[in-house]
Q: What sequence folds into this?
């Protein structure tokens, strides 16, 4: 069983449709990880 995903990056044509599909498949909402791993300087 899948317990945790760190990051999945995808290029899509229709963001709303991709988010809806991801919710259906993974059963959770997406989270903005654009700042993950960046320094705080």
A:
């Amino acid at each position: 069983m899948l317990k945790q995903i760190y990051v999945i990056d995808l290029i899509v044509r229709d963001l709303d449709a991709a988010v809806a599909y991801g919710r259906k498949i993974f059963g959770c909402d997406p989270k903005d990880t654009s700042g993950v791993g960046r320094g705080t300087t």
The mean pLDDT is 80.
